[in-house]
Design brief:
Belongs to the class I-like SAM-binding methyltransferase superfamily. RNA M5U methyltransferase family. It comes from Lachnoanaerobaculum saburreum F0468. InterPro entries: MeTrfase_TrmA_AS, SAM-dependent_MTases_sf, U5_MeTrfase_fam. The protein is α/β, with parallel strands linked by helices. The protein folds into 2 domains: 121 residues, OB fold (Dihydrolipoamide Acetyltransferase, E2P); 174 residues, Vaccinia Virus protein VP39 (Rossmann fold, 3-Layer(aba) Sandwich). 30% of the residues lie in helices and 28% in strands. It has 8 helices and 15 strands. It has a 7-stranded mixed beta sheet, sandwiched between helices. Strands 3-4-5-6 form a 4-stranded mixed beta sheet, covered by helices on one side. The N and C termini lie far apart (75 Å).
């Protein structure tokens, strides 16, 4: 009927079910969505229609620093710019006040299920917000991965650190490092930590976060983890790898990543997973070869849902003579 709505996709469909809130989300979600809808109605800006690729506003990404209270709003648009961007900022500032630290536009003109495009334009405030996990401070940009439940994230990463069993003498590789959340936790107890992430914006944040926390025993690379690690190892830039930490997306590890770990044979592998089925698949492949499962902890990361995070540690099997 031509009405702009906000909501979520119904399960396994692209049909939108109208909602203006999320009961397990932050209280500002409803305020932000109302401000965006009011702006769209006032200035005649239409929502994106994926059937004919018409319309402008595709998604609204809202982030809040749990410890700092800082708010970020990123509006994903099906255009190179938004004519009334100043008015959008005014609407959001009026609704959110001084806690709003960043407003940006993300450009995504592709007919795709992927939410974010490659280019983000900051139209108000900073390019990031800041938050703490434990005593480590992080800068978070719109395109950077950051866990949605900071309280449980502290427990999740604490368990990963425990399983890594660091004494201060280890070299650690953090695959899929994002903005350096796990890397910087590990660096406080390791000799040196290398982090790898394919998203350039996330690595920029990771390097900034290391400086922000005066952590010098880390180095971050942009690229595919298995290619970077193999290249550094074969070029002689690194020697022994004591621990590899992986925190892959829901699809789990690809074959090349598993083959790389089996080639490098670290003493321990710590696997953080958001999907138990792909975790089981990958554990089977690793434990068929050189590793044995030692410990597993499940973390209730996504309250009031059936999704969980798991942390697993595997140790290299000592070959008997």
């Amino acid at each position: 009927n031509g009405k702009n709505i906000t909501g979520y996709f119904a399960g396994r469909t692209h049909s939108i079910v109208e909602f203006d809130d999320c009961i397990i989300g932050i209280e500002e979600n409803k305020t932000v969505l109302k401000a965006v809808l009011d702006f769209m109605e006032k200035y005649g800006v239409n929502a994106y229609n994926e059937e004919d690729t018409s319309g402008i506003i595709r998604h609204v990404l809202i982030r809040k620093g749990f410890a700092t209270g800082e708010l970020m709003v990123c509006v994903v648009i099906n255009a190179d710019n938004l004519v009334y961007s100043r008015e959008l900022v005014e609407s959001l500032c009026t609704a959110l006040g001084k806690d709003l630290k960043s407003v940006s536009l993300n450009i995504n003109k592709k007919n795709t299920n992927v939410i974010l495009g490659d280019r983000t334009i900051t139209i108000y405030g900073r390019e990031y917000i800041e938050d703490y996990i434990g005593d480590v401070k992080f800068r978070i940009s719109p395109q950077s991965f950051y866990q949605v439940n900071p309280v449980q994230t502290k427990k999740l990463y604490g368990k990963a650190l425990e399983y890594a069993a660091l004494t201060g003498e280890e070299t650690v590789w953090d695959m899929y490092c994002g903005i350096g959340t796990i890397s910087l936790f590990l660096a406080k107890s390791a000799k040196f930590v290398y982090g790898v992430e394919i998203v350039d914006a996330a690595i920029q944040n990771a390097r900034e976060n290391a400086k922000l926390n005066n952590i010098e025993n880390v180095k971050f690379f942009v690229g595919k983890a298995e290619e970077i690690i193999t290249g550094e190892y074969e070029n002689g830039n690194i020697k022994d790898i004591d621990v590899i930490v992986v925190d892959p997306p829901r699809k789990g590890l690809d074959k090349l990543a598993i083959d790389t770990m089996l080639k490098l044979l670290p003493k321990r592998i710590v696997y953080v997973s958001c999907d138990s089925s792909t975790l089981a698949r990958d554990l089977k492949l690793l434990c068929e070869k050189e590793y044995e499962l030692k410990k597993l902890t499940v973390v209730d990361q996504f309250a009031r849902s059936y999704h969980t995070e798991s942390v697993v540690v595997m140790s290299k099997v000592e070959q008997t003579k």
